[in-house]
């Protein structure tokens, strides 16, 4: 005699309601929080995003809190014989939730290291670097002390962007300007050195540059073509250069919002 293989009311597992907490749902919530933090870093949604570096640290802290809650939950489940179901899908979500913020941290640390090496080279040339995004101000002049909390572990550059570089009367050459290429947040730049048109090619990626001083340099009209990509440029000083009126007029057409002094 054939038996009925359909699950009965006694053998069918109870259906979980949408508000019933499970380890898998906790991990999905954690992944959602990390996604919001990642997007907020990109679009500056929250006030703490103005303080560079803290968003990724908050994401890592959220992983730590979730892991503590999961462990506490597991211990209680053993003590009170609660149901603690951890599926293969939950394990995959856990892997992604842990890997995402730590990969993000690795990228930020690598970028900070590259910026620190560039800043050290600028100091060797006799230049000055000023930071922003430290504390509550945009412009702070000097970096934080490395003895201050997290800065001691991760470095000032992890929490601060170099937004101003002064190479006035330094020994910087065209080749030395390569160190400035990675400073994507740079807004102010003084290059009163004997650079030529070739050196300006290293500035084409500084899309946030607002103030540029090229006084007493050896640039010509050909070098101004590299500056046409700096769409955020507002002030340009060309005193003591070999630039002509025709070159300035051509640049004014490409950058109508830029005030040029020659």
Which key phrases capture this entry?
Leucine-rich repeat, LRR (right-handed beta-alpha superhelix), elongated, 6 strands, alpha/beta, six-stranded mixed β-sheet, 2 domains, 7 helices
Assign the CATH superfamily of the largest domain: Ribonuclease Inhibitor
CATH architect. name of the largest domain: Alpha-Beta Horseshoe
Radius of gyration over C-alpha positions, nearest whole angstrom: 27 Å
The class by helix and strand makeup works out as alpha/beta
Mean pLDDT: 82
Total strands: 6
Q: Count structural domains.
A: 2
Provide a count of the helices.
Answer: 7
Report the principal-axis shape.
elongated
List the helices and strands and how they pair.
Blueprint (H helix, E strand, L loop, with lengths): L22 H21 L10 H27 L7 H37 L3 E5 L17 H5 L1 H4 L1 E6 L21 E3 L20 E3 L7 H4 L10 E3 L7 H10 L4 E3 L1
Parallel strand pairs: 2-3, 3-4, 4-5, 5-6
Antiparallel strand pairs: 1-2
How would you explain this protein's 3D organization?
The chain is of the alpha/beta class. Helix content is 41%, strand content 9%. It has helices at 23-43, 54-80, 88-124, 150-154, 156-159, 221-224, 245-254, and strands at 128-132, 161-166, 188-190, 211-213, 235-237, 259-261. The protein is elongated, with a radius of gyration of 27 Å. The N and C termini lie far apart (102 Å).
In short:
With about 260 residues, this protein is of the alpha/beta class. The chain has 7 helices and 6 strands. The longest helix has about 35 residues, at about 90-125.
């Amino acid at each position: 005699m054939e038996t009925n293989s359909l699950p009965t009311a006694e053998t069918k597992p109870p259906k979980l309601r949408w508000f019933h907490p499970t380890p898998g749902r906790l991990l999905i919530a954690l992944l959602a929080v990390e996604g919001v933090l990642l997007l907020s870093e990109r679009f500056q949604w929250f006030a703490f995003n103005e303080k560079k570096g803290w968003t990724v640290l908050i994401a890592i802290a959220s992983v730590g809190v979730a892991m503590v809650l999961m462990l506490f939950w597991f211990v209680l489940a053993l003590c009170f014989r609660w149901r603690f179901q951890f599926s293969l899908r939950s394990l995959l979500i856990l892997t992604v939730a842990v890997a995402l913020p730590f990969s993000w941290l690795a990228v930020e640390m690598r970028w900070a290291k590259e910026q620190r090496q560039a800043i050290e080279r600028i100091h060797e040339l006799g230049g000055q670097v000023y930071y922003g995004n430290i504390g509550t101000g945009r412009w702070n002049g000097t970096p934080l002390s490395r003895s201050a909390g997290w800065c001691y572990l991760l470095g000032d550059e992890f929490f601060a962007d170099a937004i101003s570089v002064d190479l006035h009367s330094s020994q910087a050459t065209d080749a030395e300007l390569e160190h400035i290429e990675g400073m994507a947040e740079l807004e102010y730049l003084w290059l009163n050195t004997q650079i030529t048109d070739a050196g300006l090619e290293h500035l084409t990626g500084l899309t946030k540059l607002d103030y540029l001083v090229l006084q007493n340099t050896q640039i010509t009209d050909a070098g101004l073509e590299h500056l046409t990509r700096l769409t955020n440029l507002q002030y340009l000083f060309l005193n003591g250069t070999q630039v002509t009126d025709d070159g300035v007029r051509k640049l004014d057409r490409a950058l109508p919002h830029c005030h040029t002094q020659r």
